[in-house]
Specification:
Length: 249
């Protein structure tokens, strides 16, 4: 019998979901601008670095009731490296047109650091571990693409809307593929894809608005409020299971 979740369970699940993705979005949106020496960007970079690994491990504690021990802090360290690396990769890709040399440095170094960490601490054979890594990066990259483009779409709608559309499809597709191929879970693809699609747009609106708040406060406020309402309403339509099985590494 399928367990129908209460409003409280759905809300906690949603908060962990938005925290997990917001962290990497904050890293992706602020790391390229680190050379601007902006206090706001440094704060976002710090918050993002802590937020994603913390949310992943809290989810793990709630789902599997694992105790806080040495393995817990080891997983936190791995997730911290992977989160920062994923943020560097997506942030570098999004801002290639602004500072190509520094952006390529972020993409290449982020890939090397994340791939090396994922392979060093892998718990699967090599090929499944590589597939898991690719889907894990794709899962976070899609939402970061939206978050980094949604504010700039007002000025350059064509290029940014293409990136938003690509990101909106990439994240839910990667989540559902990872659930099926890596975690071996059966899921209703149509309904869950739609829920995750709307969630991706909503969460990215929230984080994109926060990242660009100092540049365009009125537009950013609309994105934050609208994104929160849109993503939370989408989360309430997920009655069984969790929004995404984002296990700690």
């Amino acid at each position: 019998m399928i367990h129908k979740r209460s409003l409280k369970e759905k809300t906690i699940d949603y908060l962990l979901y938005i925290a997990t993705f917001s962290g990497i979005n904050f890293i992706a949106g602020s790391v390229v601008h680190a050379l601007d020496y902006s206090l706001y960007n440094y704060i976002l970079l710090f918050v993002g670095s802590v937020l994603t690994p913390s949310a992943l491990l809290i989810r793990e504690l709630m789902l599997n009731k694992n105790p806080i021990n040495r393995d817990f802090w080891g997983s936190f360290g791995i997730n911290l490296v992977l989160s920062i690396s994923a943020g560097c990769i997506t942030g570098g890709i999004i801002h290639l047109g602004e500072n190509s040399l520094f952006s390529w440095y972020l993409v290449i170094s982020g890939f090397i650091m994340s791939f090396a960490t994922a392979m060093l601490y892998k718990t699967k054979p090599f090929l499944p571990a590589v597939l898991d890594y690719i889907l894990w990066i794709a899962m976070f990259s899609g939402m970061s693409f939206i978050s980094g483009s949604v504010v700039h779409a007002a000025n350059d709608w064509f290029n940014n809307f293409l990136l938003i559309a690509f990101g909106a499809i990439l994240t839910p597709a990667a989540i559902l593929l990872r659930n099926k191929l890596i975690l071996g879970k059966q899921t209703a693809l149509g309904k869950n894809f739609l829920i995750l699609l709307v969630l991706s747009l909503g969460v990215s609106g929230v984080t994109g608005g926060i990242i660009h708040f100092t540049k365009n406060m009125s537009y950013a406020t609309i994105l934050i409020v609208g994104g929160f309402i849109l993503s939370y309403l989408a989360a309430l339509h997920k009655n069984d299971g969790s929004l995404a099985e984002l296990r700690s590494r």
